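Batch job 17 of 40 flagged for manual review because the log was empty.
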Amino acid sequence: MSQNPLLGQYHLPPFAQITAAAVQPAIEQRIAACKAMIETVLARGDYSWDGLVAPLEQMDDQLERSWNPVSHLNAVMNSAELRAAHDACLPLLSEYGTFVGQHEGLYQAFKQLRDSAEYSTLSEAQRKVVDDTLRDFTLSGIALPAEQKKRYADIMARKAELTSTFSNNLLDATDNWHYLVTDESLLAGLPPSAIAAAAASAHEHDQQGWRFGLDIPSYLPVMTYADSSELRRVMYQAFSTRASDQGPQAGQYDNSALIDEILALRAELAELLGFANYAELSMATKMAQSADQVEQFLRDLATRSLPQARADYQQILDYAAAEHGATELEAWDIAYYSEKLKQQHYQISDEQLRPYFPEHQVLKGLFEIFNLLFGIRVEEQRGVETWHPSVRYFTITDSNHDVRGSFYLDLYARSGKRGGAWMAECAVRRITADHQLQLPVAYLTCNFNKPLGDKPALFTHDEVLTLFHEFGHGLHHMLTKVDVAGVAGINGVAWDAVELPSQFLENWCWEPDALALISGHYETGQPLPKELLDNMLAARNFQSAMQMVRQLEFSLFDLLIHRDYQGEAGQVQRILDAVRADVAVRIPPAYNRFQHSFGHIFAGGYAAGYYSYKWAEVLSADAYSRFEEEGIFNRDTGQAFLQAILERGGSRDAMLLFREFRGREPNIDALLRHSGIHAEQASATAVPS
């Protein structure tokens, strides 16, 4: 192996050998090799698939295989040294991306391939790679004059720096604030699991008492169960002001200026490329045809959901007043009284369910569901190097006993790990230069409570939903049969369709036959009692309309700041306030700075695309309705979904693949039904084709 661990030819990343000092030299060397390969390929003049695309794909894969473990470690094992090395590479990678996207010779070579006789003989996946590449050249400013090309490059480099800083600020703001409780009476109402975790955290930091933080496993139980309004207030104010100019860390990790500069640069980029605004630029690679179309879709859902959402909210107010004498509710009171109302109506809570969803049973049942639906087997592999002792590694084998892919599973929250849950690529399926099949490898990451003492990790039902969701993304990546990297798995899939498999898989978390597989008491193995199961299913759509409008608030805010932003002082907050006035059932306190922690759009890939969750949810709910009609474990239906959606990746337009599976256009009825939105408010409209 090469001295630099990031330059070796490896199947899986050598995590233990990766040092911060190795990162920048490796990336510089990879980029130099990529640039040299481009010039070599062009000098040969063979603009066929094998002469042009295949060597460039090999080159890109080598760069990606060096960079993605660095990017991943920066997200899950963040340190000052690694962060500095990671961030030093961002402008290098940005410059290289611009170099490729604006390379006139490369552009002309791809045009020549598209116009050649060979193009018609290429596979559907290969033709889509050529077409997508030519589209991306346009979106990279290939047609711009030299001065504007330079400005494009400067914008892309600066954007990469800003979005990474945004993410770093959010991670630091989350990790560096804690609240130590020394008065045991303040713990009243909290479940034993939350108290034990807080005590363990205090012990780990040589403190006496109970230490609470802003990571979700610590924060959420306080907001949901703590009887102390004061404890909830302290936690809410710290959480809702993270990385902002407000709250207990005001100005310390402030993302305010970053938000304005990111939006300004995106608007300038759109103008450079001839788009009216960044939202329209974003739509160029999505199923949706325009920002206005998306706004209409979101507002239509809001119109259908708001009456029920307002009624749900009024029910909380009425309950709190009648049962607890609480006539003036604060922002930090809503989740608390909502949970009490839910328990009164359905005699159910997450904490009652948690003992029935131990990690080992959930994973065993999840893998059994995969086998029933898709004929695949998941097996853990021991002795594989990972980045943390709690990380596990698995392979997936199909009904022909062929290995299809593998994944790392990193389930628990910890310091230095970015919040949330996600799937990311470690390796993509492709044919290598020596004509071998490179199998896909995924990173599957969550932030759940870790095991405590002799207890296994116990999940809430919401966490089980999250796990299924991320595995949906993982299956999309790992079960692809497309051998062309650019459209294998999730690659090349329109962003507003990429959530289809993930949201689709969540549905099994609500089916009694599936719940029987993924649940069992961690001590006795007893199945979920029928009374608890019935209550959980009855509570499925508790306040679902409120949840719907909350997501619509996020989506509209994201869309409108990218469509309407003019750089005026305070405009971001004004747009958010206006959206809330339209679709929120409760306006949060003036100090709330939700936008400062909205990493999806300011540090991730969802800019002007957060609506994708709802757009794809229409597709996923309608796709699942076929299983409702034909049987939730119907192997033939599962195979049809596998073959039409999971195996095809981005090789064909997402709407065509949906029609192939469903036999018709998508319809919104299934989403509204699954969400418990009353039929009288739901005259059907489809996601436009």
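Reviewer: the log was empty due to a logging misconfiguration, but the result itself is present. Residues 55 and 433 are 7 Å apart (CA to CA). Unflagging and moving on to job 18.
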